[in-house]
Amino acid sequence: MTIPYNELQALSTLLTKSEEAKELKGKERTSPCPSNDKKKESDEERIARERISLALDALKDDKRTKPTYDFLYKQSVSPEDVYFQMSGKDPSSLCCDDMVMRIQLPGTEAMHDLKLDLKPTYMKLLSPIYCLGLFLPHKIDPKCSSAEWDYTSMTLSIVMRIVRED
Predict the structure, then answer these.
(1) What is the dihedral of CA 147, 151, 152, 155, to 10 degrees?
(2) Distance CA 21, CA 11 (A)
(3) What is the pLDDT of residue 69?
(4) Is 23 a residue whose pLDDT tops 80?
(5) pLDDT at position 7, please?
(6) Is 137 part of any domain?
(7) Which of 18-22, 26-30, 61-65, 141-145 shows the lowest mean pLDDT across its residues?
(8) Residue 139 and residue 165 in contact, taking contact as beta carbons nearer than 8 Å
(9) How many domains does the chain have?
């Protein structure tokens, strides 16, 4: 198949004009004085991380015992997910909706002895015997979280809703 020269030249001018138009559109969207919104957000995040780091460093000097803990993940699945695999969910933690943290606290008598502080990226637990502060493996929504005390096994279970930023 051969293409005549004049058609190639016409195609070339069309493509050149569209590339120039794209460049102009891109220039119209950007202003000569770029917005510092992203920079402000990153500064705020940096300041928050510094405060968290300082708080966790203070916990490192605490002489109280660090309790044992483990993370479990929960998924919300329907029959379609189980039998037909229609939603595209898999068993990995990326498809989980909740993160459950179980903390073993032997010697703690009641939940009112515990002070729990949940933030989107870290958690802090204080009691007369134990002290635990750590960064969480996933960002969470503290308002959608709940804690339950099992007095028979002396375990605190914290269910935290994972926030996915898509």
Answers:
(1) 40
(2) 15
(3) 95
(4) no
(5) 73
(6) yes
(7) 26-30
(8) yes
(9) 1
Structure tokens at 160: 């935290």
Percent with pLDDT over 70 in the chain: 76
Confidence of residue 165 (pLDDT cuts 50, 70, 90): confident
Whichever domain contains 120, its CATH number is 2.60.40.790
CB atoms near residue 74 (< 10 Å): 14
- Residues of the domain holding 133: 64-162
Q: Name the token pair of 84.
A: 């037909």
So what's the pLDDT on residue 21? 53
Residues 129 and 123: their CA atoms lie apart, in Å, by 17
pLDDT at 39 over 50: no
What region does 164 belong to: left with phi over 0, alpha with psi -120 to 50, or beta?
Answer: beta
